[in-house]
Amino acid sequence: MSSPSRSGCRRRRELLAAVLLAAALSACQREDRRFRTWPPAASAIPAVRQSELQPGPTTRDLTVRNEYGDNAWAVSEGKRLYNQFNCSGCHFQGGGGIGPPLMDSQWIYGSQPENIFATIVEGRPNGMPSFRGKLGNDQVWKLVAYVRSMSGLLAKDVASGRNDDMQVRSQEQSTEKARPVQSAVPPASQRP
Amino acid sequence: MSAVLQAVLQFPGAHSALKPAGPQARIAEGLWNSMYATAIVVFLLVMAALLWAAFRRRRAEEPAPDPARERRMRRVVAAAVGITTIVLFTFLVSDISAGRAVTATPGKDAIQIIVTGHQWWWEVQYRDSVPQRWVTTANEIHVPVGRQVAVELRSTDVIHSFWPPNLTGKRDLIPGNENSLWFQADSAGVYRAECAEYCGHEHAKMALLVVAQSPDSFARWLTQQRDTAHTPADSLTSRGQEVFLSSACAMCHSIAGTPAGSRVGPDLTHLAGRATIAAGTLPNTRGNLAGWIVDPQRIKPGARMPPNQLDPADLRALLAYLETLR
Amino acid sequence: MSLTVPAVPHEPGRAPESAAEVVGRLEDTWRARPGLRGWLSSVDHKSIGKRYIITAFVFFLLGGIEAAVMRAQLARPENGLIGPDAYNQIFTMHGTTMMFLFAVPVMDAVGLYLVPLMIGGRNVAFPRLNAYGYWVYLFGGAFLYVMFFLNTGPDTGWFSYVPLAGPEFSPGKRVDVWAQTVTFTEISALVASVELIVTIFKTRAPGMTLNRMPLYVWSMLVQSFMVLFAMPWVASASMFLAMDRLVGTHFFNPAEGGDALLWQHLFWFFGHPEVYIIFVPALGFVSSIVATFTRRPVFGYPAMVLSMVATGFLAFGLWVHHMFVTGIPQLGASFFTAASMMIAIPSGVQIFCWIATIWSGRPRFAVPFLFVLGFVALFLIGGFTGVMIASVPFDTQVHDTFFIVAHFHYVLIGGAVFPLFGAFYYWFPKVTGRMLDERLGRWNFWLFFIGMNVTFFPMHELGLLGMPRRVYTYLPETGWGGLNLLASIGAVTIAVSVVVFLVNVARSLRVGEAAGANPWGADTLEWAATSPPRPYNFAFTPVVESREPMWQHPAELPAVEGLRTDVREVLVTTLLDAEPDSRHRHPEPTIWPLIAAIATAVLFITLIFTPWGAVIGTVLLFLAFVGWAWPRGKDHQEQLMIEAES
Fold it and tell me: CATH assignment of A68-192?
């Protein structure tokens, strides 16, 4: 008689353990502060396609996982670097001006972490400088995470809060999640 | 390695409130001495009274509380309370007069220094009426002996606290608040200051040296600090400069006289003239500098300096270049 | 005033009962419900008090383990045992645990257990609220530790200064966890203080006028009022912080008109009274123990009471001495120097009165009394350094150094934990019916006393030598290594003494000598109840005619007759003179406080992750309170009866 209820109980306990474990894992990633680890190797970067055209059958892109995308501390470090390295000089606080806005849904060169990584490291025509050699990969990945958070592409509990200065836009935590639209490269005449 | 710093700092005396080398620290030490002595006397008296009360020999049949004795006890307790009040009042008067002496405004001829706290290092600036003559350095203050130094305290991130115990008490650096203090070094020496307000991961490794020197050598030091960096003379150091400018270094550090002008990290124009690196953490030797450049997170986990993977030859050139920055 | 006649007239139509009948019916009426559900729905102040004390003690052990880890890390310079990230979390957890999850709750817990017994009542005034307060506290503490083990432990210190704790410099959920834990503990402390004030004011035994109240009850009264006025400040401060972090408000953002110093004012306006909230009940422990072990009433009752009240008032005028180095103008600082020195006077009065009591009494050197003697020595040292750091020029030297660490550990361990351990030894027989072992108790005391001094005395010197607080390591060249090693050795000694205490408790629970109702020959009412007390505390509500009822009537106390025994009924008395005022139907056990506490926990925890938490939590909480207040069972029938009668 007691066996069904006991197994039910065991199942419940297993479920509880699974939930706790999941919570633990997610929390670990969000709160981890590893100071000396190297991010996913930059060697994955050449796999990022700069063109849609491929010889032979079309293969799926290799996606690189940015481990910093779910780490709150890394995102806030990215935010600091964003201002310190003067990204805000062109992109402003995400609203864009000289460079394109980063908090909307339009992505010229792709919204995936590896696309943004390539944009920062390689630079892009018409204004985006290449930071190759000037930034450590680790710093670039943090910037990537922060840039993605600006359009709500990261979980809200990972995105950073407001800064202790003048508030010029809503904080990343309260940004509505944008559905990335991959816009084609605009014709030269329309480029800023 | 530790011998070098030992020689520089004359530890532990270089960082102690009990070895005052300035007027304010001397006042605080005087207060401490008088209060400590009073505390010892009062402690011994009270403990003696307590132990005597507990262990005194008692007659076999002592009466239950009798009114006459209670009255006598009341008088004794009242007297003890009265004495306590008098002692406290004396302390209060001496505290307030000492406080006035310590907070008196500095004289007009005081040297003005701006100290800005960053996570986890100190930016130091000597201003001048001519902006070109401003001097910016980091983690080291040079002052002339016997002259007042007025320090303006600022913070760009979180609250820090500036505290050279041999010279004066501490004062917080609070973002959004203007704070200042002044001190005066009465004898030449190197004194140490540490951040005294918890400010994050590397609060423990955020120190600053106060170098008190004769007015002449201070003037020489200040003039020398106004110079921009020399152009590299040989191929090794010019290769080093190239490495500096083409790698991540230039993203954060500035060297006057070169295109590197970022204010994110400490100014390195006269790096080789400083006694320590990493905010008072390591003596400024070639080996330490190399370790710091390659793997700073081992020395100061959480610090803002990123690791740098440099080619050994490049690293050697960079170190040679940095050593020329006197 | 004398009250030896039955105070409450018999209800018409009810025959007087014999003593045995009364006890039998009370047993029946007040019996705890069986099973797990019964355990979860208990509203008895004794079972909740015991849970409270044990929970707080578990947090004390956890906080102690954290302290041990810190001492291990600091035992030698440049130690690599733990890094800055772990160290910062651990020192924050230590402070938060000891202040919010141990010191205040354990004082409330002991008070909730003892006060109704000491004033001859049957339970606290709001027993369901009491259960609710305990569950909220338990969930808050458990939440903090679960998050800590998930690497989400707060890391900005128990004081969480902004901007370091603000949204820019503390990403992630770590500080949010801290802010919400504080909210949990505030609620439980406020709830406890409300219960205690009403219990003390309205349910004292007939004849226990305010000036016959035991000093311990006075101390809990003062402490409860302090909680009532101090806790709302930290409640609003932590709410501001949570709002700054979670919804982007600007309370502490200087660029938008906020102020980082506002946090410090709000926090210390709570934080300084907090120290006295912990310390005042300890004064009550000491007075109880001194009276019992010198076999005479404490000398100078009015002076003792007035001193405690004065401490309670003055405690609110000291907060700025935590902020002397923030650039407060000298005139303002002088005021707080004066207030900080003034508060030494009431403490002095009490110490002198205890010494006078001991001198004129016949002391017995049992373990509780040893802890009191140790308390006086340690508290004196902490008090002296307290007077020293009230001085602005000296404080600017030692502020935020190990000197301060030494100072407040002398005040809090010497001033509060020593009396608390004395209280454990003193009241353990009442709670469990068994004595603790004296020999182990002496080991416990001496190891603790020596360990305490070896650990914390060198820290004064370390502070003067320039060692700042909250550093995860220090350079070998600083010369701080030797004293730090000594302090770490002392910490081991303290750990051993706590283990001795645990062994003593475990041993006593199994084979301890049985204690009678009044093993120490004490003077206050709780010793009239059986050990451990029955659920209704006293079969007959006693009548009090002096400050020392048990010494006045060692054989049998005069008692009130006529309270109903077939339902849970308690006597309500007047505030000043404790004259019988009315009868009060006492609530039955119920599971709803637990459910309401769960709803509260859901509210606070989900709020960290989504603003929808406010909606979900409020709805759940509303439902829980509807269930709580729904008339049912005996309550309901009683209500119908009352309506029919009127």
Answer: 1.10.760.10
**ipTM score over 0.85, yes or no:** yes
Residues from chain B that touch C355, judged by Cβ atoms under 8 A, are: 46, 49-50, 53
DSSP string, A10-62: HHHHHHHHHHHHHHHHHHHHHH---SSPPPSPGGGGGGS-S-S--SSS--PPP
Binary contact (B12, C394; C-beta < 8 A): no
State pLDDT tens for residues C10-26.
454 455 567 888 888 89
Interface contact C167-A27, CB threshold 8 A? no
Residues of chain B found within 8 Å of residue A36, distances taken between Cβ atoms: 295, 297-298, 301, 307
C23: Cβ contacts below 8 Å, ≥ 6 apart: C539
In A, what residues contact B, Cβ < 8 A? 33, 35-36, 84-85, 133-136, 138-139, 164
Verify cis geometry, omega within 30 degrees of 0, for the bond prior to A125: no
pLDDT value, residue A12: 66
Q: What is the pLDDT of residue C560?
A: 85
Question: Does the beta carbon of A92 lie under 8 angstroms from any beta carbon of chain C?
Answer: no
Q: Does B35 touch chain C (CB under 8 A)?
A: yes
C-alpha span between B259 and B281 (Å, rounded): 28
Q: Name the percent of chain C lying above pLDDT 70.
A: 95
Q: Which pLDDT tens digit goes with each residue over C541-562?
A: 999 999 999 999 888 888 887 7
Task: For residue C174, give the chain A residue with the closest CA.
Answer: A31
CA pair distance C253, B111, nearest whole angstrom = 32
Instruction: Spell out the domain ranges in chain A.
Output: 68-192
Cis peptide before C393 (omega within 30 of 0): no
List pLDDT tens digits, range C72-124: 999 999 998 999 999 999 999 999 999 999 999 999 999 999 999 999 999 99
Chain Cα centroid distance, residue C104: 3
pLDDT tens by residue, A89-114: 999 888 888 889 998 888 888 888 88
Angle formed at CA B247 by CA B243 and CA B248, multiple of 5 degrees: 140
C261 and chain B in contact, CB less than 8 A: yes
Phi, psi for C216 (deg, rounded to 5): -65, -40
Q: Do C172 and A30 touch (CB under 8 A)?
A: yes
Q: Are C465 and C474 in contact (CB under 8 A)?
A: no
pLDDT value for C312 = 95
DSSP C404-460: HHHHHHIIIIIIIIHHHHHHHHHHHHHHHSBPPPHHHHHHHHHHHHHHHHHHHHHHH
CATH top class, domain B235-322: mainly beta
All chains having 3 or more CB pairs closer than 8 angstroms to chain B: A, C
Helix (H) / strand (E) containing C72: helix C45-74
Helix (H, G, I), strand (E, B) or coil at C156: coil
- DSSP-based three-state secondary structure for C285: helix
Peptide bond before residue B120 is cis, with ω within 30 degrees of 0: yes
Helix (H, G, I), strand (E, B) or coil at A159: coil
**Which pLDDT value is given to residue B4?**
46
Tokens of B26: 């001397």
So where are chain B's domains? 12-54+105-222, 235-322
Q: Answer yes or no: are the C-beta atoms of C69 and C90 closer than 8 Å.
A: yes
Q: Where does residue B156 rank: exposed (0-12), middle (13-18), buried (19+ CB within 10 A)?
A: middle
Q: What is the pLDDT of residue A21?
A: 66
- Does the pTM surpass 0.90? The reply is yes
State whether C171 and A165 contact (CB < 8 Å).
Answer: no
Please determine, looking at this structure, whether the domain spanning B12-54+105-222 carries the CATH number 1.10.443.10: no
CB within 8 Å: A36 and B298: yes
Q: Mean pLDDT for chain B? A: 90
